Automatic annotation (TrEMBL):
It comes from the Eukaryota. Residues 31-41 have a biased composition (Low complexity). This is Uncharacterized protein. Residues 1-41, 101-122 are annotated as: Disordered. Residues 1-27, 112-122 have a biased composition (Basic and acidic residues).
Length: 122
């Protein structure tokens, strides 16, 4: 009876490891979360102004899709065991920020220091 129970645990551990590795492979390029039930949960860590502590807040799938690109990849942290993403500016407090504009040059007229593309690094 003990041997059967031990084999069952080994099989579950192997299955859990396969699941974890598959999740890590899927998430390795920081894909924007989708809307299916299989997507990872997303949590946003924000500083409490009064205490200075970081507070972890669950983010809806819809909101995650909207804020995902506001944070660079080095501010995303994936946990494959629990299938969740943490977004936290404290992971890299001073990254090179990228602002997205929906058309044209966001710089004042006559400023030609950037191309007229859709991204402007600040």
């Amino acid at each position: 009876m003990d041997k059967t129970w031990n084999k069952s645990i080994v099989k579950e551990d192997a299955r859990a490891k396969q699941t974890k590795l598959a999740r890590e492979k899927t998430q390795q390029n920081h894909p924007q979360p989708g809307s299916s039930s299989q997507v990872p949960s997303v949590f946003l860590w924000e500083e409490d102004i009064e205490t200075g502590f970081l507070l972890k807040k669950a983010v809806s799938q819809n909101k995650a899709q909207h804020i995902w690109q506001d944070y660079p990849n080095n501010q995303h942290c994936y946990e494959s065991t629990t299938n969740k993403w943490d977004i936290c500016e404290a992971l890299d407090p001073e990254p090179e920020k990228v602002m997205h504009f929906r058309g044209g040059n966001p710089l004042p007229t006559g400023d030609t220091s950037h191309d007229k593309g859709t991204q402007c690094k600040v």
